[in-house]
Amino acid sequence: MRYETVHDVTLPKIGFGTWSIGGGTYADRSRDAKSLAALRSALDLGYTHFDTAEMYADGHAEELIGRAVRESGVKREALFVTSKVKPSNLHYSDVLKSCETSLRRLSMEYIDLYLIHWPMVGMNLSDTFRALNKLVHDGKVKHLGVSNFKLKLLKEAQELSETPIITNQVPYSLSDRSYVKNGVLEYCQKNNILLTAYSPVDVGRLNVGKALQSIAEAHNASPFQIALAWLINQPYVITIPMSFDPKHQKENLDAADTVLTDEEMKQLN
């Protein structure tokens, strides 16, 4: 595994996303066995960064992560857990309540990284960060970040946060370069901020062209692994793919060890 370090925080290049664990927008408890099996295999394989949100399965994803971690015997301090406050809860008191509720669902005393999930039109970002800063001061949250923030808002978040912004989590893949075009990736790379790429293989609908297929064959890897390797061969970029299949989970994890040549990166770029 390769890692990135910013502001004394070290994260693996490949983490485990949990969208669809426990349901979609709403909880679907009929999927609990499948979801728990996926989390258990991820823990067994050695994933240490788990990314979730109060929005995922209406909080049920957090409950299942907490249960899987408790039953695994893995020490809490060996894991890095990210969660997010949803845009409808960005008022001061709502942020504090959301975090407390997430901690209760996770059965954890702290969240390693807490993000604003999406910016909301008309939000009072100063009010939001007043609450986020308090959570860090109180030890409920270790580090702060944002998600889906464009450059202007990211800079504003930096000014309001009393501790360094660790990441901006955004969609980024071979087919989605929107946060390259809007300047966010370059800004993160120049300002010691991780860009956490979500939907790194287009939710399993990766378009496999000739260059990608050829590079995959040269590395005896799948196109999905090369798509992940392309992301993490870039400085300050980490990613959080998700799979229910233990085989695919291992392949995703192994992608961190795939080193692409400059020429291969140029072809994919």
Task: Kindly describe this structure.
The chain is of the alpha/beta class. It has helices at 32-45, 60-72, 92-106, 125-137, 151-160, 178-181, 184-190, 210-218, 223-232, 246-254, 262-268; strands at 3-6, 9-12, 16-17, 49-51, 80-85, 111-116, 141-147, 165-171, 194-198, 237-239. The chain has a single domain (3-207, 230-260), classed as TIM Barrel, CATH 3.20.20.100. The chain is built from eleven helices and ten strands. The strands form two sheets. Strands 3-4-5-6-7-8-9-10 form an eight-stranded parallel β-sheet. Strands 1-2 form a two-stranded antiparallel ribbon. Helix 3 links the parallel strand 5 (80-85) and strand 6. The two termini are 23 Å apart. The mean pLDDT is 96.
Short description:
With 269 residues, the protein is α/β, with parallel strands linked by helices.
Tell me the number of structural domains. Answer: 1
**Number of helices in the DSSP assignment:** 11
Weakly predicted, low-confidence segments? none
Specify the structural class: alpha/beta
Provide the CATH superfamily: NADP-dependent oxidoreductase domain
Distance between the termini: 23 Å
CATH level 1 class label: Alpha Beta
Question: Judging by the overall fold, what is the CATH architecture?
Answer: Alpha-Beta Barrel
Strand order of the largest sheet: 3-4-5-6-7-8-9-10
Helix content class: 40-55%
CA-atom Rg in angstroms: 18 Å
Q: What portion of the residues fall into strands of 2 or more residues? A: 15-25%
* Oligomer class: single chain
Tally of DSSP β-strands: 10
Shape: globular
Query: Which series of helices and strands comes N to C?
Result: EEEHEHEHEHEHEHHEHHEHH
Largest sheet: 8 strands, parallel
> Kindly state the mean pLDDT as a whole number?
96
Q: Say what the CATH topology is.
A: TIM Barrel
